[in-house]
Amino acid sequence: MNSIWPQSQETIQLLADAEQGDADARNQLMERHRDSLRQMVNMRMDRKLKTRIDASDIVQDVLIEANRRLDDFISADGMPFHLWLRQLAKDRIIDMHRRHRRASKRSVDKEQRLNVGGFGDRSSLELAAQLRDPELTPAAATLRNELEERFLAAVEELNEDDRDIILMRNFEHLSNTEVAEALKLSQPAAGMRYLRALKRLRKVLGDSDVNDDEINGSGE
To answer: Domain locations in the chain?
Structure first.
């Protein structure tokens, strides 16, 4: 499954043009990643925060910051642009959550979780695959939305590290290589963290443990 993030070749060219002072390339670079960034932000905002802040506002703030810091990013010649951009977004979301949930985090989490019972006959991998299936007909949209809500409710039961890597792999569709780079881990360590997270997710969903063959088949 393709990543939600744009393909890198055009991004690389836009970065090269921006380095040469092309203002239009800078604007194109930001706009090219706006929708992907919105998806990433939206899936990581909890429901309580969504009632107070629009994901588009966070996206705009992140793009402004990215534009301001772009020259430093280009000079650093570090991680791929989309991984850098998502890190800016992740930091911004964490900051917003801290501001709005500092005093009531436990009660808010308890109120917003949905009932995840009844999924003992579905593996989390099968559920995730259905959520990202681009061939679903319009008639399946309601079921897809319900599955997504329940899946995300189960994900919310996980700790922050497990939740993050599940979203990175199953919603952003980042490869294990990209996850490893984003988390500053070796590729084997990133794969093992994903395996452990899936096992915990399946426990929440009432599934049997995932095995190594399933992980190996879930993407490089």
So the answer is: 1-112, 114-220
pLDDT tens for each residue of 137-161? 666 667 766 777 777 788 888 898 9
CATH class of 1-112: mainly alpha
Residue 192's pLDDT is what? 96
Place of tokens 């899946």: 151
Overall fold of domain 114-220: Arc Repressor Mutant, subunit A (1.10.10)
Q: Say if residues 166 and 205 touch (Cβ distance below 8 Å).
A: no
Size of the chain in residues: 220
Return the closest-CA partner of residue 97 out of 79, 112, 82: 112
Single-letter residue type at 203: K
Query: pLDDT tens, 106-117?
Result: 554 444 443 334
State the pTM of this model.
0.72
Distance between CA 52 and CA 175 in Å, rounded? 33
Instruction: Return the pLDDT at 204.
Output: 85
pLDDT attached to residue 117: 40
